[in-house]
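Long-time lurker, first post. I've been practising inverse folding by hand and with some scripts of my own, and I keep getting stuck on stretches where the structure tokens seem ambiguous. Below is the full token string for one chain I'm working on. Before anyone asks, I'm not after the true native sequence, just a reasonable design that respects the backbone. If someone could post their per-position residues I'd love to compare against what I wrote down in my notebook.
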């Protein structure tokens, strides 16, 4: 189990107390939580706690245990307007569209919180800082929920995570027999806890289950596999559909383009992109640095376990949180755990 840092305060709260608290938050700020949208669970704004897909259960729902897309889209939306451009005669006016609202996200799983921390390495901790991402990070409080059960594709413990890892959230909740144990992890989280209303406790969260581990090739071993025929073979089944990247909490490629809104009015938007796409990184003149599907598939796995950790100084930490979403959505069964085990075997 991940040990809490420093002297953290803890409280025991009932389901009713949790719902009352969340209702209060929803009245004062934007509360985002898992919600069913046409049978799919997504992180969306909720007006009251009754709208939350508690444990993913709801009539007619997919009964998934966590949202299809990770919390990434709250900080780095699928499509976002960066600014609008107005041209009147020879004059051009730019108007930025900075997000400026206080947001609280409820039911953040440890793997997704870790994913946000990994995105910080690019958007926040490296110059130039991404002002849009930074603003959202600053204005957002994360309420985590430790996993009680592991999904069939989870492998967080093999990549350094844990189902009860509280390091990357502001408040952590652990389910107990009668309700929840709440833990203030950061000052930002402490600020959100209602003063004097909850029963303080010295109890510790119970040991979480182990999801079982398998060996993952160490970072230094990856370059040896760069020219393996394996990537071409594996890519034969890939459809270049990009679904794996879109559900991934740490994939962060984007494209920027301008759209016409009206005569003399334009917007600059950025939207998710993926190295799986055939035209990824195509340059003027039509050259594609990764023309073969196998090269693109290889890039995705290298990016998680070698390129990104190397480029952003993550040490032995990989850019994969073991959430397993890419395994669930791939229509042709490309399974990252299979790839990791195959590489480890062939080392
Ligand atoms: S398991 Fe797949 S979706 Fe999840 S972080 Fe790793 S690469 Fe991304
Ligand atoms: S989800 Fe599967 S088929 Fe689609 S791009 Fe990813 S690996 Fe290829």
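-- Answer (accepted) --
I ran through it position by position. Result:
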């Amino acid at each position: 189990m991940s040990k809490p840092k420093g002297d953290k305060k803890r409280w025991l709260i009932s389901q009713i107390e949790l719902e009352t608290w969340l209702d209060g938050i929803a009245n004062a700020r934007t509360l985002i939580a898992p919600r069913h949208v046409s049978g799919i669970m997504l992180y969306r704004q909720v007006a009251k706690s009754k709208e939350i897909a508690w444990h993913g259960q709801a009539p007619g729902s997919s009964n998934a245990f966590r949202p299809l897309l990770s919390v990434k889209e709250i900080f780095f939306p699928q499509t976002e307007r960066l600014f609008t451009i107005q041209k009147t005669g020879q004059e051009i006016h730019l108007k930025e569209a900075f997000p400026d609202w206080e947001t609280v996200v409820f039911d953040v799983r440890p793997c997704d919180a870790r994913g946000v921390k990994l995105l910080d390495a690019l958007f926040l901790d490296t110059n130039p800082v991404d002002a849009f991402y930074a603003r959202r990070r600053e204005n957002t409080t994360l309420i985590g929920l430790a996993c009680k059960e592991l999904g069939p594709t989870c492998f967080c413990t093999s990549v350094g995570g844990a189902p009860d890892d509280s390091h990357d959230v502001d408040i952590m909740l652990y389910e107990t027999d009668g309700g929840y144990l709440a833990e203030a992890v950061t000052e930002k989280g402490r600020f959100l806890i209602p003063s004097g209303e909850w029963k303080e406790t010295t109890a510790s969260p119970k040991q979480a289950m182990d999801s079982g581990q398998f060996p993952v090739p160490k970072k230094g071993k990856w370059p040896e596999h760069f020219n393996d025929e394996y990537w071409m073979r594996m890519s034969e089944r890939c459809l270049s559909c990009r679904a794996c990247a879109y559900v991934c909490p740490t994939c962060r490629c984007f494209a920027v383009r301008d759209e016409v809104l009206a005569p003399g009015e334009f917007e600059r938007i950025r939207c998710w992109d993926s190295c799986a796409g055939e035209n990824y990184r195509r340059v003027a003149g039509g050259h594609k640095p990764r023309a073969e599907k196998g090269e693109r598939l290889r890039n995705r796995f290298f990016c998680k376990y070698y390129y990104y950790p190397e480029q952003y100084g993550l040490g032995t930490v990989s850019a994969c949180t073991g959430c397993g979403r890419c395994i669930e959505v791939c229509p042709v069964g490309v399974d990252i755990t299979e790839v990791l085990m195959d590489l480890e075997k062939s080392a």
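A couple of notes from the structure itself: Residues 293-311 form the longest helix (19 residues). The two ends are 30 Å apart (CA to CA). Happy to go over any region you disagree with.
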